[in-house]
# Entry
Amino acid sequence: MKSSGLSAELNIYDWILSKEIREDWKRKPPLLLMEQAQIIAFAYRSVEEKLQALEGLFERERDLEEKEKMERLIDYYKAAICHMRSDNKASEKPYPKEIWTIEIYCYYCNLGSMGDKHELEELHLEYSYEAAKKWIQDLDRGNADEIYSVCKWILEKKKPKCVLDCSLRLVGDRLCTTQVYLDEYKMPFLLFDRRLPHGLPFAIGQLVKLEGPVFLESLFGVWCGEYGFDGRWYNYMGYMEREDGSEIPVFTARNMGYHDIEFHENFSVLDWLHSASEEELPEEQKALGAIAGEISSIREQRGEEEAAGRFKEIFMQD
# Structure
């Protein structure tokens, strides 16, 4: 079932932050309502905004099976928001009903490093979600490389039980929860089916970059998108990384055919992927410019299939 068009209340393309992808997808066939729901689920927005948008889509959906899938996602966000609204008081006896742990992680590897890792920098306790969020806001450090993970624990007699994990990020100038994980709640199907409904507007051999306020520095790479035998688009970004202690660069690739960026599940490809120019490449990555030129030349002279083959020879060898 194709959607009959976008309502005045929700323009799904406004939820895509990458201007190039947003403008390209506007020219493609209209997205199904379930495809729109996936864009909402992986978007860099608050869970409250996501819930409101999904409820609007739910009212427009007519297929009962699809409606049921969307309803599960709506219930998931409702349960999370319900957990976030607490009347817990620190003075309650014999002990408060819940505590909230705040874990601050710092990136010490950039996107292009092998085995991206986070290091726990600070741990703090509060008695409500709002108090936890205020404590983070009062830090006023503005570090783009920091990740805030806030967890709700129910204090039971035997041991605490974690029921909710929130990822807090700065969206514009507002700190809010963009992703949630409920410990004892079946994750909705829409959060598992992550494949993008359309290809992305980059040519094989084109230089691209992942960049945005959520990343410590840009990751540059060479693009390869091809149409598979199963009727789906397959998108890859070939880039350079270095193993610890080695001066020799390693060429490898990340799968960019899904909503979330490989190894970085909280961030969507549709938000942070852009075209790049050779002039932007750091000195130690100038080889990517030469590779992009070679693959682009093969594409222009001998076609996309041979260009994709050359990409795989360079970036996808075992």
Notes: The longest strand covers residues 160-171. The radius of gyration is 22 Å.
